[in-house]
């Protein structure tokens, strides 16, 4: 019983002490000052300049006060949204994983073609087919024209979307690119369809026993003409894919460098603004801190998690900076910055 009474007495004394300490800091005054200071930061750092859908602001400041620790400001800026654009462009680049290591058209130029598994099974089922016709079908099977050209067109389209996401092309330029790629894609599909049609004619000719030496020579001539027609279209598709890929990679590098420069300027502006206007936070005790959380601007951790950058400044240092005892650069050096 004696122990219980002693414990209750300690709790009462602690509660009374906490109440007295809390009264030393005027919470309502802190709230008013933080609201004013947050508005000043929004103006000085131009957080409301960039607007999103329906004119809604993308930036702003939200303030919280933690008794005994200090104020926490969460800063949202257009920089985080610009970083998302950079992420979309990187994703588009990553999707271009197909690397054309060998020209499939080289198989056509060989004296002997390598029989694909599909043609091998067909050859077993069509054991009576003449050697010349099997060679023709082998050549057609080894022309992987559709894979090469259409993959190139897909890569080109992805690069075009990356350029648009990075703002390297405007809407009209992007529409012109789409039209150019659509025209080239139609030419690719026409040639693929012509090849499939020739393959069907060869099979039909053999199946109806209407094949002759003349028809064999005619089919070979048609295939040679198709192959010759394929080359410039294929080269155009590959060239356009390479051109747009190079443009998108350069645009992504330029965008990343510009973003890093703007982020550093944003940090400098933060410390200059705190130096100039931090004196408005009069009700926060000197031994407490001002913590500024830059939302979505932390270092890339490699786990696809969007991190924040936190800057912790001591209130005493802020007052010295406001009184021009130290400058914004010294305030930054004395502060703690980390990614979380």
Brief summary of the model shown:
This protein is an alpha+beta fold and 340 residues long. It has helices at residues 2-24, 27-44, 78-94, 106-109, 117-125, 131-141, 145-165, 171-207, 213-277, 315-322, 328-334, and strands spanning 60-66, 70-76, 289-294, 309-314, 336-339.
Shape: rod-shaped
Give me the oligomer status. single chain
Span of the ends, CA to CA: 48 Å
Major β-sheet profile: 5 strands, mixed
User: Helix share of residues?
Assistant: 55-70%
Low confidence ranges: 2-23, 52-56, 94-115, 122-129
**Class based on secondary structure composition and strand pairing:** alpha+beta
Which properties best describe this structure?
340 residues, five-stranded mixed beta sheet, alpha+beta, 65% helix
Written account of the structure:
With 340 residues, the protein is an alpha+beta fold. Helices cover 65% and strands 9% of the residues. The protein has helices at residues 2-24, 27-44, 78-94, 106-109, 117-125, 131-141, 145-165, 171-207, 213-277, 315-322, 328-334, and strands spanning 60-66, 70-76, 289-294, 309-314, 336-339. A 5-stranded mixed beta sheet has the order 1-2-3-4-5. β1 and β2 form a beta hairpin. α7 (145-165) runs antiparallel to α8 (171-207), α8 packs antiparallel against α9 and α9 packs across α10. The longest helix has 65 residues, at 213-277. The protein is rod-shaped and about 105 Å long. It starts with a helix and ends with a strand. Residues 2-23, 52-56, 94-115 and 122-129 have low confidence and may be disordered.
């Amino acid at each position: 019983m004696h122990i219980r009474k002693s414990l209750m007495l300690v709790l009462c004394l602690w509660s009374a002490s906490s109440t007295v300490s809390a009264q030393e800091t005027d919470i309502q005054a802190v709230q008013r000052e933080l609201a004013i200071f947050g508005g000043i930061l929004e103006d000085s750092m131009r957080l409301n300049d960039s607007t999103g859908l329906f004119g809604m602001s993308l930036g702003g400041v939200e303030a919280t006060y933690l008794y005994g620790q200090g104020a926490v400001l969460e800063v949202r800026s257009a920089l985080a949204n610009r970083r998302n654009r950079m992420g979309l462009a990187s994703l588009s680049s990553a999707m271009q994983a197909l690397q054309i290591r060998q020209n499939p058209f080289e198989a056509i130029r060989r004296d002997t073609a390598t029989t694909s598994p599909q043609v091998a099974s067909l050859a077993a089922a069509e054991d009576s087919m003449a050697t010349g016709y099997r060679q023709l079908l082998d050549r057609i099977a080894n022309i992987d024209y559709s894979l090469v050209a259409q993959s190139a067109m897909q890569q080109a389209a992805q690069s075009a979307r990356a350029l648009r996401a990075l703002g390297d092309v405007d809407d009209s330029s992007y529409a012109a690119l789409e039209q150019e790629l659509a025209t080239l894609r139609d030419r690719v599909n026409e040639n693929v369809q012509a090849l499939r049609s020739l393959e069907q004619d060869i099979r039909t000719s053999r199946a109806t026993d209407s094949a002759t030496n003349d028809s064999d020579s005619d089919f070979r001539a048609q295939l040679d003409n198709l192959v010759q027609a394929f080359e410039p279209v294929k080269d155009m598709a590959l060239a356009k894919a390479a051109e747009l890929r190079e443009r998108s990679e350069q645009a992504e590098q330029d965008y990343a460098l510009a973003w890093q420069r703007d982020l550093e300027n944003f940090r400098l502006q933060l410390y200059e603004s705190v130096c100039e206007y931090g004196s408005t936070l009069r009700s926060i005790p000197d031994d407490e801190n001002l913590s500024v959380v830059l939302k979505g601007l932390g270092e890339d951790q490699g786990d696809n998690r969007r991190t924040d950058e936190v800057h912790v400044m001591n209130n005493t240092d802020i007052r010295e900076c406001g009184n021009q005892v130290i400058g914004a650069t010294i305030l930054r050096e004395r502060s703690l910055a980390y990614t979380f």
